[in-house]
Design brief:
The complex is a heterodimer of chains A (222) and B (240). Chain A has 222 residues and is mostly helical. Chain A has helices spanning 2-16, 22-40, 44-67, 72-76, 79-85, 90-117, 124-151, 158-183, 192-218. In chain A, α3 (44-67) packs antiparallel against α6 (90-117), α3 (44-67) runs antiparallel to α8 and α6 (90-117) packs antiparallel against α7. The longest helix of chain A has 28 residues, at 90-117. The chains are: A mainly alpha (222), B alpha/beta (240). Chain A binds chain B through residues 2-3, 5-7, 10, 13-14, 17-20, 76-79, 81-88, 221-222, and chain B through 15-16, 49, 52-56, 71, 74-75, 77, 79, 81-87, 89-90, 94, 97-99, 101-107.
Chain lengths: 222, 240
């Protein structure tokens, strides 16, 4: 168990220290969300209606931004070879790396979401709902993204390809995340059903993500 | 702990659709070192990466006997290659402590000897103790190599796979490396080293990959040929 803890701590430290993506992700999130009111115009009702979707798309793009280096730095400096030889289950290594990556880059997005919600004129209940759905949904984005990061690990400029691969897979998460968030302030739409679907997607990605990414990484050694 | 044997039979591997190794055979026991020689591009690194399980075999088999039953060859081995596996943002000691905790407990101890060393002890033994709390980014190339080598000292594993181990090391560090490797061999370890330099180790047998294309079967008088290879024992040299 000690190795899991030290792997987590190392990855987390690398994420928040020099050159880690933690701050960049939040700043990018801020940039995306700020751009919308300028583009859409000062129509407060309209902003409130699309606000949850804007935040979700911002969070998705910010997550993708940091993912391309998830395994690539490890491959370039030889760390991946040593991970594969260590005799530790690669699936677990991937899961722990994703957990640390999420704590360093995903959690700040969730924390920033309530503040950014003010930019798009969300009411308090909706702010709570968006933050809750992001808290549940961003781990799924990271884990689904890890599959793309594993598949593109050998490509020098895999970032764009990663986004193209991952965005279609992330669409269900986006749909249920946004529908749960908007349903919170709607009179007719149900809140619980899409939220439960979102939870189910996250749980599924916990299973599929590490296995798929580990398989891809094992074959990246050649 | 008993004797271990690394057995490689007719190993072949392909990389990028090209055959880079064909029918390499050798057998290596505890207390022995195998030096793989040959010019650039002959497949030395590929053979080491194959032994490390990082490149899959096209045919043949590689086995370790006398080790932990449920563990494969790679999990008995340390790989010291061209890449240092260091994170520049972490300090020297953080880098080493991470690898120790990540590797610890999988491998099993080599019979006796000075290993495993403490983290600080290993850094001192390699002459980089004074850099312990510096970020690894500030190390010179030679210091990075030595820090990477320190990983082999803090977690004991019976088989050391060394790919051009002396690159970027100065004469004094090279001497330290050779004495560390010899001590590992003396205490029952196995070493497979690929080099194009005249590296001298104890109980050394040689495998010359450069001659693969010229040799057919079982030519005598040369150390461990690629095909029909005799067992390592008949070619012990420098047996002190």
């Amino acid at each position: 168990m000690a190795w899991m803890k030290s792997l987590f701590l190392k990855e987390f430290q690398l994420g928040v220290r020099v050159g880690g993506g933690a701050l960049i992700g939040v700043l990018f999130f801020l940039a995306v969300v700020t751009v919308f009111p300028f583009g859409v115009g000062p129509d407060l009702k309209m902003l409130a209606r699309i606000g949850a979707a804007v935040l979700w798309i911002g969070a998705l793009l910010a997550t993708l931004l940091g993912l391309d280096r998830l395994f690539q730095t490890d491959r370039e400096d030889g760390t991946l070879d040593l991970y594969l030889m260590a005799g530790r289950p690669m699936e677990l290594v991937v899961l722990i790396k994703c957990a640390a990556h999420w704590c360093a880059t995903g959690l700040p997005l969730v924390v920033a979401a309530p503040v950014l919600s003010l930019f798009v004129n969300l009411e308090p209940v909706a702010i709570g709902a968006v933050t809750l759905t992001l808290l549940i949904g961003t781990p799924a984005l990271t884990l689904i993204g890890a599959i793309g990061a594993g598949v593109t690990v050998t490509l020098r400029r895999g970032g764009v390809l990663l986004s193209i691969l991952v965005i279609p897979l992330a669409i269900p998460t986006l749909i249920f995340g946004v529908s749960a968030a908007t349903a919170a302030v709607s009179q007719v739409a149900p809140f619980k059903a899409p939220l439960l679907f979102l939870c189910a997607i996250t749980l599924m990605s916990f299973v599929i993500g590490p296995f798929a990414a580990a398989t891809a990484l094992r074959n990246a050694g050649d | 702990m008993g004797q271990q044997v690394l057995d490689c039979q007719n190993a072949s591997c392909e990389r990028g659709g090209r055959r880079v190794l064909s029918n390499v055979s050798f057998s290596l026991e505890s207390h022995q070192a195998l030096i793989i020689r040959g010019p650039n591009g002959v497949g030395k690194s590929s053979l080491l990466r194959t032994l490390a399980g990082l490149v899959s075999l096209a045919s043949g088999k590689i086995e370790i006997h006398g080790g932990v039953a449920e563990r494969n060859v790679a999990e008995h081995a340390h790989y010291f290659g061209h890449l240092d596996a260091l994170k520049p943002a972490l300090t020297v000691i953080e880098n080493l402590q991470f690898w120790r905790s990540f590797y610890e407990g999988v491998a099993y101890p080599v019979p006796a000897g000075p290993l495993p060393m403490q983290v600080e002890g290993a850094l001192d033994a390699l002459g980089i103790g004074h850099t312990a709390h510096l970020p690894a980014a500030y190390l010179s190339a030679g210091q990075r190599r030595r820090l990477s080598l320190a990983r082999l000292l803090v977690v004991p594993r019976p088989l050391w796979l060394l790919d051009e181990p002396t690159s970027a090391l100065d004469a004094a560090s090279e001497e330290t490396l050779v004495s560390l490797v010899n001590s590992h061999i003396k205490h029952g370890g196995m070493v497979v080293a690929a080099t194009h330099l005249p590296l001298q180790l104890d109980n050394m047998i040689e495998l010359n990959l450069g001659e693969i294309d010229d040799t057919t079967t079982g030519s005598d008088g040369k150390p461990a040929q690629s095909s029909g290879a005799p067992t390592a024992q008949s070619y012990w040299e420098d047996w002190d």
